[in-house]
Each structure stands twice: as C-alpha cells, then as structure tokens.
Amino acid sequence: MSLITILIALFLERFAGTLDDLRQFRWLDGYANWIRERMESLGISDGTAVFVVTLLPPVLLLAIVALLVHGAVLGLLDIVLGVIILLLCLGPKDLNDQVEAYVEAGAMKDEERQKRHARDLLGQQEVPEDLRERTLSIVQAMFSEANNRLFAVLFWFAVLGPLGAFIYRLGSLLKTPGEDRPEGVMAAAARLQALMDWIPARLFALGYALVGSFDTAFAVLTRFLPGSWANMAEENTRLLREAGAESLHLDHVRGEHWEDPNEINALVERANHLIMRTLVVFLAVLALMTLAGWAG
Fold first, then answer.
1. Closest listed residue to residue 65, CA positions, set 157, 163, 159, 158
2. pLDDT at 10
3. Among 185, 201, 206, 220, which has the minimal tally of Cβ within 10 Å of its Cβ?
4. What is the pLDDT of residue 171?
C-alpha cells in the first residue's frame, strides 16, 4: 500500500497545482503556545518536556484515525488517509517548481527576478551577488532541501506509515522560530529532526552516488557515515550537499562555464535531474520490496 500511496501523492503533488497554503499548519503556533502555557502553569518549563507534550496529542489523534480506517473499504481508506497526510507533509514548497522558476528567470536574463527566486530557495534575504557563488549555493541547497522536503518524508512514510511522515513534519515545523516559541522547544525539535534525518540522509547520499559520479560521492558518504550526536544536524546537511556536489563534479566545472548563463542554468537543471533520478531509484527499491513482500 505504501508504494501505491506514494505514487498517487507524488502525481497529485506534480499536477494538482500549488498546495503551499494547505501546508502552513496555521493551527500549530496557537496550539503550541496553549500547550506551553498549560505546562508553565504546572511549573514545567523544560523545552524537551514541552516539545514531547506538544507532539503527543496530534500524533495520537492521527494514530486513532489510522486505526479506525485500517482495512476499511478493501484498504482504500488507508490509501486516502496516506495520500492526504503525504500531501500535507511534503514541502511545504515544491522544490521542483522553485528550481524551474529560478532557471526560467536566468534564461530570460532577469537578474532581479532570479535573485528573488534564489532568496526563496535559500530561505535567506541576502544572496551572493557573484553568479558563480550564487549558483553553487543554490545547487547545494537543492541537495539538502530535497531531503527535508521530499526524501525524509517519503522514507518515514514507507517505514512508519502516515505517523512517520506526520512526526517528521511536525518536528521540522517546531524547530523554526514561531510565535513565542521557546528556545528549548526549538532545540528539542531540531534534535528529533536531526535524528530522523540520519538514515535518509545517508541513504539518499548513496542514491546521489549511484546516479551520479559514484567514486567521489561515495567517498563523501564514508567520511560522514558514523556521524556524531553533537553535530548531527550539521553533518546531515553537509553530507547531502557535498555528496550531491561530488556526484556532479562541481569542482571540475571549467571557469569559462561560469561566464555563460546558459551553462549555469544547465548545471542547475542537472542537479534537479539528479535529485529526480535518485527519487526514481528510491521508488524502484520500494517497488522491489513490495513485490518481495507479496511473493513472501
């Protein structure tokens, strides 16, 4: 069922138009503040405790709904629930759409528009003025953002079903600054996401190696393979960015190519195609596992 659900969700994600508004989780800030205030009224202000209590009610509610619909209507309701949760938890913005908009602006030689899309992709107000540095930043961000927006969500959905994707997305949202959100809560959420990113980051770094330059990208993977608890989040990001860059041989791009906007756009498109090929590899592996399960 996981494979069918993922395929339907990815199809709708690609062709159903923008779903950004549905993925804002606007209820989360108010709900998290209400939980924090109740906890503080009880004398509990530890960030980890507040985070866990914030996470539990929506996760338990989803678990109850999943149990109620499990197996109903020949399993169709399981698929419907899974598709809804995936569509809510992917993103929140479609990376492919953002990349296409950036490339289109570059092709039209509209630098201001390209910078605007670069800010959107990088999640920061200041973007490098130098075209080479900006392109490298965009490409590296694509490799790490693909994990946060797509790969990790699909991985945990495949492992734990809708609950896995939902927990991952809630952790990702709660680690970002929000309305009166305590530092301790954000730190606890960041630790959870770093832990949940550990396996998919390494699997998809391996995917980058398999569909790109294997030797150089795999060398990056082996260097980051063990990792450390203290710097897990940073190491996950560096692994994905460096493995992706090595799989494309970014260090070997000749100097004259950085002067040609068409070559630069082609480089960004190559990075996007590499991400899409890695996704295909993931789906192929999941299909084989599904077939093996049916055969067994």
1. 163
2. 93
3. 206
4. 96
Quote the distance between the C-alpha of residue 67 and its chain's center. 27
74 burial type by CB count under 10 A (0-12 exposed, 13-18 middle, 19+ buried): exposed
Q: How far apart, in Å, do the first and last CA atoms of the chain sit?
A: 15
Q: What is the pLDDT of residues 107-146, one digit of tens each?
A: 888 888 988 998 988 887 678 888 888 888 999 999 999 9
Phi and psi at 181, nearest 5°, equal -80, 125
Q: Which of 139, 145, 151 is nearest to 207 (CA)?
A: 151
Q: Is residue 221 within 8 Å of residue 239, measured between CB atoms? A: yes
Give the contacts of 5 (CB within 8 A, at least 6 positions apart).
78, 79, 82, 83, 86, 157
What size, in residues, is the chain? 296
Q: How many angstroms separate the CA atoms of 225 and 228, rounded?
A: 9
**Is the Cβ–Cβ distance between 188 and 47 less than 8 Å?**
yes
Tokens describing residue 208:
């980058």
Q: Where are the alpha helices (DSSP H) in 70-130?
A: 76-89, 95-107, 111-122
Question: Taking a C-beta distance cutoff of 8 angstroms, is the pair 12, 289 a contact?
Answer: no
- Name the pLDDT band for 258 (thresholds 50, 70, 90): low
Q: What is the pLDDT of residue 35?
A: 95
Distance (Å, whole) CA 138 – CA 147: 15
